Amino acid sequence: MHLGNPQFLLGLAGVAIPILVxxxxxQRVKQVAFSxxxxxxxxxxxxxxxxxxxxxxxxxxxxxxxxxxxxxxxRPFFAEKDPVLAGRLQAPAARIVVADLSGSxxxxxxxxxxxxxxxxxxxxxxxxxxxxLVGFDQSVRVLAAPTRDLxxxxxxxxxxxxxxxxxxxxxxxxxAGDLLRQVQAPVxxxxxxxxxxxxxxxxxxxxxxxxxxxxxxxxxxxxxxxSGLAITAADSPQSVVAxxxxxxxxxxxxxxxxxxxxxxxxxxxxxxxxVETAKLTVxxxxxxxxxxxxxxxxxxxxxxxxAVAGGDAPQRRFHFNTRLIPRIxxxxxxxxxxxxxxxxxxxxxxxxxxxxxxxxxxxxxxxxDAAAVPKIRPAAVVLLADxxxxxxxxxxxxxxxxxxxGGLLFLPGAQTRPESFNATFAGLAPAKLRRILTAAAGxxxxxxxxxxxxxxxxxxxxxxxxxxxxxxxxxxFDRYWEVTDSQLCRIPVRLDDGRPLLxxxxxxxxxxxxxxxxxxxxxWGNLPLRAxxxxxxxxxxxxxxxxxxxxxxxxxxxxxxxxxxxxxLHDPDDKPLPTAAGQPPVATRAGFYSLVDAQGQTIFRYxxxxxxxxxDTATVAPKEISAALQVEGAEAGTLQAESRQPAATGLxxxxxxxxxLLAALALLLLAELxxxxxxxxx
Amino acid sequence: MAGSHYLSTEVLARVSNMQLLAKAIVEGxxxxxxxxxxxxxxxxxxxxxxxxxxxxxxxIDWKVYAKTDRYYIKRFExxxxxACHILLDASASMSYKSRADGLSKLQYGASxxxxxxxxxxxxxxxxxxxxxxxxxxxxxxxxxGPTHLQRVLTELDGLKPGGDTDLAGPMNAMAEGxxxxxxxxxxxxxxxxxxxxxxxxxxxxxQGHDLIVFHILDDAELTFxxxxxxxxxxxxxxxxxxxxxAGMKATYLRELKKFLGDVQKACADVKADYGLFNTQxxxxxxxxxxxxxxxxxx
Lengths: 682, 298
Known about the structure:
Distance between the termini of chain B: 35 Å
Oligomer: heterodimer
Radius of gyration of chain B: 23 Å
Distance between the termini of chain A: 41 Å
Number of helices of chain B: 10
Largest interface: A-B, 24 and 32 residues
Structural class of chain B: alpha/beta
Largest sheet of chain B: 6 strands, mixed
Strand content of chain A: 25-35%
Shape of chain A: flat
Strand order of the largest sheet of chain A: 21-20-22-23-29-28-27-25
Number of helices of chain A: 16
Number of strands of chain A: 34
Number of strands of chain B: 11
Radius of gyration of chain A: 36 Å
Shape of chain B: elongated
Helix content of chain A: 25-40%
Strand content of chain B: 15-25%
Strand order of the largest sheet of chain B: 6-5-4-7-8-11
């Protein structure tokens, strides 16, 4: 805490005033020999103690009030000790060199040009000048703090080499501006050495600018010759369920040259085996895409590479790892038999989940009794169709399923009693059931309820976002459950009256529970008869079963999930990845990072790629950067004038608290008034 | 003259006037209250009656025999057969006085006792004095005559406060020694067990005594005028406590009122005449008020 007017702290001596007044005017105990104490009724001592306590409290309040008054006049404020401002260097000139070390700087002769530009930027400095060095990809690193030791900065610059990460040019310039605040110099300059990829500038939101007086010099670096082809976008599934349908792996290849690239081989390799080769023709300064369709058969990791012929540069290779999940075991708990013609809807559920032999689901029907407990353990998803209550051991098994990341889908029906359901599934169900609503009762004209809103951002419904990928408007419902206590739920689907139709709640342990307010029963609606039913149900099952799957795709420069105890993380060269204590592992380059258990077996692979945006050849103009970051018309001297206050104090922005002190003083005076009245009554 | 400290001219003058007034109405406070039921050899003629054989011939009025030739016996009304017992509390609590230039309760009570003795003996009523605290410290049996009055006043003049107040013990001891019924006057602040007071008064009443209770309290005891933080020390027990009088006053006055009510009820139960005296009130005014009250009662 700091003081704006510290001289007013002398007013703290004022606390002596109430103390003196107290000492001078306090009641001295008179001595009286009295005839008898029989009429004092024993209350004397308590009352005197209370009076003494009140007097001391009154004194404390008055002392505190005087102290607060003095403190408020001293205008205290909080301000972080800004290390940048606290130790400002005095120098005739200051220059911070910003070096782009992103993956795009690995093209052609750009690394050499970068070194040359660095050496040039560290020349022609006046004696005593302060220099700093900042390197960046998608993260910013201060390689050399502002110093007069020019040789040390040059040595640090000589070892720099671009990596494979993305880029954040704006953050690097901002950091350089912060470093310049350490220096008080007539000339302060930021020299930016970058290929000025637009992707590195797109993170700038326009919410800050450089201090007045700071000069920004941008040296765009261009490769002598274009790198040719590069993958600028790629897509592959990270987790798939075992099924016969092939999955798509697609890449988009850009041609930065002025000549058309004809019949360029693009290969797909899965698990070390060449699977397919495609011929791709990319127009000059254009892009073309290639899509491979591959049916994954091996359970677990399926590491693969899409490579564009013409070199091993990171921008020509796309690494992926598609994990194949065995068929999703689904258990349907219901008291109905699910036979054709039955109105309970179980028939539709079973048929939709296992339409053919190559269905990705294995559905089994069981009654909700204790005998179903062993069947829950292997299940990934459990459907509770019109189940209002379960025995305790079955409830415990459902809790265990949720704790290990499994999914639950509640389909309350006509036999479900709200009281029993709410009591049995209090910790699992997304919401409580209240009553069954009849659609015709609340509607005029159209007596059926229809879908009002679908959250296409929900993972289970992303698939339906594109046109002609599903029509929810054909669904109509005659009855549905009204639910309550759904505040903590995500509601992917609502009816036209705003009431939730589908609710989802994340459960402790990673599991998820969904509740469909209308069962798959023809007596309730036409959902089982519409085409959207089957893909919707499949998507819900996939979502419930796979939401706990770990991601396999990362970009260079990103942190990887830390390995569990007993596991080690190996880099693409299959060497243990060195990590600092307490720091998460960082993927520094493209390739496969392997998670190895104590027995040396690879149990998981992370596919790391260079940020595809780095292959995008679009650049930003230096003028655009300068215009966005520099305050026009500001003179160098303005900086000193405007920054005199923080320079003198070495502090950051103030947070004044004198107003709070005055408010506390007012409260104290109110308390003093109250206590004084109480004391006078004693 | 010993004891003249208590008998100022003003007091005597005022009380004498009141005594004359009382005598005029019901033959005086003491005399009127205690008309003798006995005929004896006193000085006041009562009546004549014929001589009956067997009576002593010394009572025959020979002058009447000479005039009438019949034997008549002269009868007189006794005046001095009332025994008045003054019981004065000289406990430590009686030494309290709230004003340095004022009278303590003991001084006030002793003055009152001296006045009463002066009147009683002046009325040829045998007057005794008993001084007590938690026991009988001095006892003068009822006697007549200036010499006895001088002894009473001397005893009162050298009076010093003593120990705790105990009404029951000394009074019971006193009652045991009283064979003839008479008038018992108790002068005390009564700061003791009220039930003990009731028991003692009941015993006096059972013996046929008339009872008068002079309750002496200081003005500060009645009004509790203290305001500053005060440490009160009990004059009898020595116990001390610090009190904030402002917050304590209501409690004190409530307890005092209850105490006074209990005392008055105890006196009323035994038909004892009760009078509360404030030491700030002039003594003659207090006596006047009391005698006036007695005159109205008789």
